[in-house]
Amino acid sequence: MTRILTYNVHRCVGTDGHLDVARVAEVIAAHSPDIVVLQEVDVGRARTGGVDQAHELADRLSMASRFNAALRVEEELYGDAILTALPERLIKAGPLPGYPRIRRLEPRGALWVAIDLGAGREVQIINTHLGLVPREQQIQAAALAGGEWLGNPSRRDPLILLGDFNATSATIAYRTLAARLADAHTAVARGRWRIATFPSSMPVLRIDHVFVSEGVRILGMGAPADPLARVASDHLPLVVDFEVGV
User: Fold this and answer.
1) By CB distance 3.0 to 4.6 Å, which of 99, 127, 171, 214 could disulfide with 167?
2) What is the phi/psi pair of residue 179, to 5°?
3) Which domains does the chain have, with CATH numbers?
4) What is the pLDDT of residues 71-83, one digit of tens each?
């Protein structure tokens, strides 16, 4: 079994307004993940004290980090990260298209790595964070489903696409991706029960998703809502246990 955790850390600023990287690391460490997928990570930004949050979180978790900057402001970076202590290699990191009719939308990107699980098993992981505008989400989901990402010749199953999609299961963006990969939530949900992650203080929305290819078996999923997790970020972490064949 392998455990993966996806978490929008809100640049490590909690719902109480406090910046606390150690608190976010504590939330993650409580679930002993093998792979950590993060969104809204600041690296060298003045607003969060110039800290390389990807590196500091990885260091606190005894992991190595990969970071993709979706936004660059001179030397300041903001984007997504994948952390693990397992052997890994970068496949692709880059931007996702925006919606040109609305200027100054926050740039978005995706980060794609292959992780060696041992015993001849490898899993590919794509981490992303889509925009807030529905048409923007549709464009970005279509890009992920297209030839640059899921249709890329470098793709090998088993594969997991996950992150903060800012989109519920009723949206076109969600349906675009669910047509290419299975929603892991369906493997564990019962009836109308939903694993909601946002907002962390009273989660009602399921906008953090985990999509999986053939060859990935979901064993369990949850969004821990203990007091520390409710305050460390505006999202709850989403924890998924899975296994892959050889």
Assistant:
1) 171
2) -75, -20
3) 2-244 (3.60.10.10)
4) 888 789 999 999 9
Question: Tokens in use for 5?
Answer: 């955790």
| pLDDT tens per residue, range 56-67 | 999 999 999 999
Confidence of residue 246 (pLDDT cuts 50, 70, 90): low
Q: What is the pTM of this model?
A: 0.95
